[in-house]
Amino acid sequence: MFLAETESTSTFTPFDVFMIIFTVLIAAGLIRLMMQRPRKNLLAIGFATVSLLVFLAADYKMISGW
Fold this sequence. Notes:
Elements: H1 2-5, H2 15-34, H3 42-64
């Protein structure tokens, strides 16, 4: 009964793993976009940069809650 009364303060959910995987995929895509030589797609680079910043901020907030 004593073990049932303790509270878990961790807010870890399985969705957190997907958030980190998506962040890594966005970072890999941004690196690929930046490596293009002849013509760079500036709209895609800007969108990927903003997306990566949003996901990094969300990951930081998520991990600080663990």
